[in-house]
Amino acid sequence: MGIATAGRSEADMQNIVGMFVNMLPVKAQPIEYKTFAAFLKEVHEIVLKAYENQDYPYEELIKKMKLQRHPGRDPLIDAAFTRHDFDYEASARTMQETGDLKITPYPYEPGNSNFLLDLEFTEADEKIDLRLRYFANVFKESTVRAITQHYLEILKQIIGNINILLKDIKISSHLEGSRKDILVGIDKEFDF
């Protein structure tokens, strides 16, 4: 899994215009007899450790690992987790108050993902908006909708019991058929 970082860890880079995003590859082992709380703590520690290396260029890592590239697919990361924390409305208000610049949020549809799956989330107004972007050459929209339903089902179980064993997290029977379709579809495209 990959986590996008802003690439602005140095204070003097905060006010420079440009895209400095860097990806951090993260790997965790969800062993079935761990509780979700224990697994979450483990992932938290792994992510904090990864952030210690956030300035190491991702492309340099790919070169150093001598990973083979395939057209349209990242050689190391299949799934990404992206947090957007820019407050457009607050920035627009600040700019309007100073009279320097007017910013108007423009709705956009980002299209295809750079990764097989990219779960993006934005926190605003005491809510979390989720968007699952996907590699459209691999997944059908119906498959991604099913993955989303599975994800929501898992979240409900975790919220209900943070100490649930990973092996006890279940998918509702009405979603079980889509689970088989997802796995069959993925197996056809990739050697997992």
Give an overview of the whole structure.
- This protein has 192 residues and is an alpha/beta fold.
- The protein has a domain of 52 residues.
- Helices cover 38% and strands 16% of the residues.
- Strands 2-1-3-4-5 form a 5-stranded mixed β-sheet, with no helix packed on it.
- The protein is globular.
- The protein starts with a strand and ends with a helix.
- About 5% of the residues have low confidence.
List strands and helices in order, with pairings.
Elements: E1 2-5, E2 22-25, H1 36-51, H2 58-65, E3 79-84, H3 88-98, E4 117-124, E5 127-134, H4 141-160, H5 173-189
Parallel strand pairs: 1-3, 3-4
Antiparallel strand pairs: 1-2, 4-5
Order of helices and strands: EEHHEHEEHH
The main β sheet shows up as:
5 strands, mixed
| Oligomer state of the chains in this structure | single chain
Low-confidence stretches: 101-110
In short:
The protein is α/β, with parallel strands linked by helices and 192 residues long. It contains five helices and five strands; from the N terminus they run E-E-H-H-E-H-E-E-H-H. The longest helix is centred in the last third of the chain and has 20 residues, at 141-160.
Write a concise keyword list for the protein shown above.
192 residues, alpha/beta, 5-stranded mixed sheet, 5 strands, globular
